[in-house]
Design goal:
Elements (H helix, E strand, L loop, with lengths): L1 E7 L4 H11 L6 E8 L5 H8 L3 E4 L8 H13 L5 E4 L8 H6 L4 E5 L11 H7 L4 E8 L9 E8 L6 H24 L3 E4 L2 E4 L2 E2 L7
Parallel strand pairs: 1-2, 1-4, 2-3, 4-5
Antiparallel strand pairs: 5-6, 6-7, 8-9, 9-10
Helix pairs in contact: 1-6
Bound molecules: glycinamide ribonucleotide.
Glycinamide ribonucleotide binds next to helix 1, strand 5 and helix 6.
Organism: Photobacterium leiognathi
Family: Belongs to the GART family.
Pfam family, one: Formyl_trans_N
Length: 211
């Protein structure tokens, strides 16, 4: 059985997609053993409790700096012997030491077609730029913010007069489809990171993953 630990900060709709995929067999031989949030009132913690998954809040203000917080977070994660660590809307920048501890087994989902729009407010930035195409990317986490090798992307259109809410919903629908899939690949060990590149079924993926 593979152990998955999920880090969240908010609603946890991607967490829910992965919970559902573990229970309906899309993700096989895997269980989410803990959900950890930096925000006490993150709705995703309630989703975890409802699924009988240990829900943990670790408050940044109890720690003196980012490194101390990240050390405590890493130790808590390691208690669950994770095969896979999933960042699902975890809205903190992670220190280099933390990232290196989980190298090759930590994934993030970022709401843009990376390398476009790393960072925040991606949907608004895509609308403001007049983009007609937007999307989401699942990538390995490396020390470069939103810069690790992309594994899989999903594209969505942006229509004239779309609101940011409409674009967000369209992107999130795709996230809920692709994040469980990539999680399954990593749990099955079909996916690895070698020399900073994503390798799937023995093939090096192109820099922007599969679109
Ligand atoms: C997701 O859309 C994810 O792509 C984004 O936060 C949202 C979390 O939603 N992540 C980032 O912006 C990371 N930089 P959720 O809590 O409902 O899964």
């Amino acid at each position: 059985m593979n152990n998955i630990v999920v880090l969240i900060s908010g609603s946890g709709s991607n967490l829910q997609a992965i919970i559902d995929a573990c229970s309906n067999g899309v993700i096989k031989n895997s269980q989410i053993t803990a959900v950890i949030s930096n925000k006490e009132n993150a709705y995703g913690l309630e989703r975890a409790r409802a699924a009988n998954i240990e829900a943990i809040h670790i408050a940044p203000k109890q720690y003196g700096n980012r490194e101390q917080y990240d050390d405590a977070l890493a130790e808590r994660i390691e208690q669950f012997n994770p095969d896979v660590v999933i960042l699902a809307g975890f809205m903190r920048i992670l220190s280099g030491d933390f990232v290196r501890r989980f190298k090759g087994k930590m994934l993030n989902i970022h709401p843009s077609l990376l390398p476009k729009y790393p960072g925040l407010n991606t949907h608004q930035r895509a609308i403001d730029a007049g983009d007609t195409e937007h999307g989401t990317s699942v990538h390995f986490v490396t020390e470069e913010l939103d810069g690790g090798p992309v594994i899989l992307q999903a594209k969505v259109p942006i229509f004239a007069n779309d609101t940011v809410e409409e674009v967000t919903a369209r992107v999130q629908k795709q996230e809920h489809a692709i994040y469980p899939l990539v999680t399954q690949w990593l749990a099955e060990k079909r996916l690895t990171m070698i020399d900073g590149k994503a390798v799937f079924d023995g093939e090096i993926l192109p820099p922007q993953g599969y679109a």
